[in-house]
From TrEMBL:
Keywords assigned by UniProt, alphabetized: Cytoplasm, Cytoskeleton
Primary residence: cytoplasm
Annotated segments matching region Disordered: 1-30, 277-296
UniProt xrefs under PANTHER family: TBCC DOMAIN-CONTAINING PROTEIN 1
Record's compositionally biased regions (Low complexity): 1-11
Localization (cell): Cytoplasm, Cytoskeleton, Microtubule organizing center, Centrosome; Cytoplasm, Cytoskeleton, Spindle pole
Domain C-CAP/cofactor C-like per the UniProt entry, residue ranges: 303-440
GO cellular component: spindle pole
Protein name per the record: TBCC domain-containing protein 1
Family: Belongs to the TBCC family.
Lineage: Eukaryota, Viridiplantae, Streptophyta, Embryophyta, Tracheophyta
Pfam families reported in the protein's UniProt record: TBCC (PF07986)
Length: 570
């Protein structure tokens, strides 16, 4: 198997490097840790290595092609079919190997039939034990008493990272930096890589440490969790970075290697990366904790926001306040974006992406073009999000409205309140091309279908009161058709870019289309009445003033006032 980033078939991938060098370091893949964790209790094993080893034997004996389909997965894990499908779709969204047939699948029926590779599944299940890094400066519930008003039993701890608190802190110290997260993920891998290798290894006739061996194809599955590479270059397939598989011929693959030898090499590589990171961040120890693009919110103005220059990490759009921000594909480095800590603003990201994260935003309208893998929205309040995506996860949000064009069911987790969903409601000229590049199908829109899981996320590091772990997340309601309106993206926001999209690529449901046509007809009738009315000048002024007042009230009540920032933001 080949690492996804080594392929040039995907238009979102950078070109591969010519030859690997010893100067590259081993890094964890962020995607499985950020988009691949599910709060399903039966996926978290107290003794992961032993339980998964038994599961491996069961799965390998049930299928000769090393793939696990929907029904088999549900049976062996003793979970509902809906959760089994969710697991396969989640693995598909974070899978490293672009050649895997699962990534070629479109609709759910194809995904169900193709299933997931046994070894990718085992790694996915193992990392469900991962605990996310506790935000810096956090002292659990006592430190976050000043958050949203207590409207639920979970507010004291689940709302710990509320956007209101982030505004008051006026910095990003409550959000782990990319460097901190990478160190945390490396530490996790350092501790658990031995167990993970044992799940990939085969038994041999040797004794002791040589009784387990690893073939090159099993070794490549580690690409699910890690890769070699540095800033500005594509990731390098793991097998091409090792001393024991580097020159292997596909027609004559290298002989299996003792797992103990592979473990020693991996631990040495992880230690080398940890030392490299320590050397890189040590000059900043007395300053704010930061990663490639982490900056303090207090120091960010709308003119200073710059995306990451690294293809290895995501581009950041951060700290936009009472303004607008427009980013085209040419403004972004790589195919991943994080929108963090933006308030009372309108954000346009008109680009094809693989991954997107919206975190800690409030009172904002955010348009994210086309996301081919996954988008996650977390700890947001009164945000209007418009996106075309393969899948979306919503966690710990309040009073947000999501206008969606999504190919899979929406995943809703955590402590949510008053969420609303509606069909996709906008377009820009390049949207069709961006959706094609990202792999988003306009003929499938499951905007009003959702899966709700636990209100408590077992992957966070916060303490939770006893008895709440079984609570289900609050689901979302549909926007009333009469309140559905289109979002108009001004043509000039696209600059010199132009495309062929001239309308919403997702067909509207009949009730929403009828309401839209009815409102358009009513508007035309009002225009005609005003045009034909014979009013004195003072009456015309009174009518004009009343219309402006009503329009202003609507702008503020609907949140559309934010779009006016485009007139003076950039």
């Amino acid at each position: 198997m080949a690492d996804s980033s080594s392929s040039t078939d995907n238009p979102l991938d950078p070109p591969p490097p010519t030859t690997p060098t010893s100067g590259y370091h081993l890094h964890p893949r962020r995607e499985p840790f950020e988009h691949g964790l599910l709060p399903i209790p039966k996926l978290i094993f107290t003794d992961g290595a032993q339980a998964l080893s038994q599961l491996k034997s069961t799965l390998l004996s049930s299928d000769s092609d090393h793939r696990v389909n929907l029904d088999t997965l549900a049976r062996v894990l003793q979970i509902p079919i809906e959760q089994s499908r969710l697991i396969i779709e989640t693995i598909s969204s974070v899978l490293h190997d672009e050649s895997d047939p699962l990534l070629k699948a479109g609709v759910s029926k194809e995904i169900d039939a193709i299933g997931v590779n046994v070894y990718d599944l085992l790694i996915f299940l193992y990392i469900q034990s991962y605990k996310r890094l506790l935000p810096k400066g956090h002292r659990d519930s006592a430190a976050v008493a000043d958050v949203w008003p207590s409207t639920s039993a979970f507010d004291g701890f689940l709302s710990a990272l509320s956007p209101l608190q982030l505004v008051r802190s006026n910095s990003r110290r409550f959000i782990p930096s990319q460097a901190d997260e990478e160190v945390h993920q490396l530490s996790y891998l350092q501790k658990h890589i031995g167990n993970i290798l044992s799940l990939l290894a085969d038994s041999s006739e040797g004794e002791g440490d040589d009784s387990l061996v690893l073939s090159i194809d099993k070794f490549e599955h580690l690409g699910f969790l890690m890769y070699f590479g540095e800033k500005g270059i594509a990731k390098i397939p793991l097998s091409q970075s090792t001393p024991f598989f580097a020159n292997s011929d596909p027609d004559m693959p290298a002989a299996p290697v003792p797992a103990s030898q592979v473990l020693d090499w991996l631990l040495q590589s992880i230690s080398s990366t940890q030392e490299h990171i320590a050397d890189r961040v040590s000059p900043k120890e007395n300053g704010p904790s930061s990663s490639d693009q982490d900056v303090q919110m207090a120091d960010v103005g709308t003119t200073s926001l710059k995306p990451s220059s690294s293809t290895r990490g995501p581009s950041f759009i951060e700290g936009v306040s009472k303004s607008s921000c427009v980013k085209q594909a040419s403004d972004l480095k790589g195919a991943s974006v994080k929108v963090v800590n933006c308030h009372e603003s309108v954000i346009y990201i008109l680009a094809p992406l693989k991954y997107a994260t919206v975190y800690g935003c409030s009172d904002a309208t955010i348009v994210i073009g086309a996301v081919g893998k996954a988008i996650r929205v977390e700890h947001c309040e009164r945000v209007h999000l418009i996106t075309a995506a393969r899948r979306i996860c919503i966690s710990n949000c309040r009073e947000c409205v999501f206008f969606l064009g999504v190919n899979q069911q929406t995943l809703i987790l955590g402590d949510n309140h008053k969420l609303q969903v509606a069909p996709y409601n906008t377009f820009y000229s390049q949207l069709g091309e961006h959706m094609n590049q990202a792999g988003v199908d306009p003929n499938i829109n499951r905007w009003d279908e959702s899966i709700t899981l636990g209100a408590v996320d077992p992957h966070d590091s916060l303490s939770h009161p006893a008895g709440v772990s079984d609570a289900q997340a609050e689901s979302a309601t549909r926007v009333v058709p009469d309140q559905f309106i289109d979002l108009v993206i001004p043509n000039w926001l696209e600059g010199d870019q132009s495309g062929s999209t001239k309308d919403n690529p997702f067909p509207l449901p009949e009730t929403y289309l009828a309401s839209k046509q009815k409102n358009a007809k009513s508007l035309d009738e009002v225009k005609q009445i005003l045009k034909e009315s014979q009013l004195e000048e003072n009456r015309k002024r009174e009518l004009s003033s009343a219309l402006h007042s009503c329009f202003k009230d609507w702008l503020y009540a609907s949140g559309n006032i934010r779009q006016l920032y485009c007139l003076h933001g950039e």
